[in-house]
């Protein structure tokens, strides 16, 4: 499995959350506490939106481990962004190659995933046949995660993100049942369009991989006024992470099973998520 984080809010240097926290994502690439594997060294990736870009995100991915990549350290100390993804990979069986590293990009969209489709090799043909033929050539790698992404794009990601992800999840579960694969889907997924981030926590067995969201910035400021980073960030600034970046009480909240979060958020921090069967 994998570890990931999604950030949205005031522009910051990427290393502020990638390297500096006590239990940063780089630390998790070697010493994950809540993942299936302790080490996530089968590649990594960054995806970020820039203020002066054309709306499409930049992506940097590599097949080596994140903890000793000098280029990643260099980029993180110089790139500033208001919205970015970072992912460290532990392969579930597909090849260790750049095209299998997350996040995946299509147009303005970024997508990353932790989890798996059980017996993907049995379901893969039928899943791929459901991808819009115009999108199919864009699939570069061999992971279940990328196929899930293009299924979501096929099912209307541009119009309705939660609905598209729900229809993708429903298809995986329906095909799993048809092929005799019980409990086929395990996912924590993040998807962004440059304006908002959506994060989903769901599994067919109702025992999903860990996922947490940060408390609202003002709440954290009141709890920890001594933290310099918090003084300049907007109220809309939030993080969603596979596991907490530190042990500060009151900062991290577990996203409930079968739910999704949106940042910037509305009055509710999360909403229920249920697969849609077509």
What does this structure look like?
With 278 residues, this protein is α+β, with helices and mostly antiparallel strands. It is built from seven helices and 13 strands. Helix 4 packs parallel to helix 5 and helix 5 packs across helix 6.
Describe what is shown at a glance.
Helix content is 23%, strand content 27%. The protein has 278 residues and is an alpha+beta fold. A hairpin with a 2-residue loop joins strand 5 (104-106) and strand 6 (109-117).
Order of helices and strands: EHHEEHEEEHHHEEEHEEEE
Distance between termini? 29 Å
Globally, the shape reads: globular
The helix/strand class is alpha+beta
Overall pLDDT: 96
User: How large is the share of residues in beta strands?
Assistant: 25-35%
Number-wise, the strands total 13
State the helical fraction. 10-25%
Largest sheet: 7 strands, antiparallel
Low-confidence stretches: none
In terms of quaternary structure, the protein is single chain
Lateral strand order in the biggest sheet:
3-2-4-1-10-9-11
Radius of gyration: 18 Å
What are the defining features of this structure?
278 residues, 7 helices, single chain, seven-stranded antiparallel β-sheet, 13 strands
Helix-strand layout with pairing:
Blueprint (H helix, E strand, L loop, with lengths): L2 E11 L1 H4 L6 H7 L12 E6 L8 E5 L7 H7 L3 E9 L15 E3 L2 E9 L2 H10 L14 H11 L6 H18 L6 E8 L4 E7 L8 E3 L2 H7 L14 E4 L10 E3 L4 E5 L7 E2 L6
Antiparallel strand pairs: 1-4, 1-10, 2-3, 2-4, 5-6, 6-7, 7-8, 8-12, 9-10, 9-11, 12-13
Helix pairs in contact: 4-5, 5-6
